[in-house]
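Notebook entry, structure prediction.
Reason for the run: the old model in the group folder had no record of what sequence produced it. Starting over properly, with the input documented here first.
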Amino acid sequence: MQIAGKMVLVTGGTDGIGRQLALQLLARGADVWITGRDPERLARARAEGMDAIAADLTGPDGIEAVLRGLAGRSLDILINNAGMGTDHDFRIATPDVAGDDRTLWLNVHAPIRLIVALMATLQTRPEAMIVNVTSGLAIAPSAGAPVYCATKAAMRSYTQSLRAQMKGTRVHVLEALPPLVDTAMTSGRGGRKLSAQDCAAQIVAAIEASADEANVGMVRILKAVNQVAPWLARRIMIGF
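New structure, fully documented this time:
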């Protein structure tokens, strides 16, 4: 896909992978719109040449805010990047169900609602794309983050079905599966982390190539292991 001249919406575009995606797409000539919650970060994005919509996508009001902000505009690329994790480990403490609900909303309900609301617009464009950012944990889960893993697995399944529905249309569907990335969400966690900049670069390359999947970094190895021996992939990741 040609990125220059395209209008792109990146949810969660003020930090981490989303911010790097927005910056790299802007550098390629896209008209970049982002969503976020932090006023200072939104202001920074506007100063850098992006349009920014203040929206909390952990509930339905955030969806309405995005749709109001985009009203009357022709969107070419929707990148559902915003995501969060929540502590849900009975070995440590009783899980916070309110946190679980926010995670389910942001990671599953929000992207699906945006896709439904924006599909008609996307279908009018000469070429369009939906990019759903899931995770390597959508392939095989870890024991310590079952709700997060479940949301990403749900979006992986949804994305695969949506791609089949959109076959032969103007709307291409791409799933991006990052590994452990050095962001605020993974702060304090050990292990080898990919930089947000490198992660975004691989996703942008997949957009330009109109790929079906962007298996980023070490996820390429995980995907290969899972294809040959799914039990081994699960064993490797369950303690991650």
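Summary: The radius of gyration is 17 Å.
The old model has been moved to the deprecated folder.
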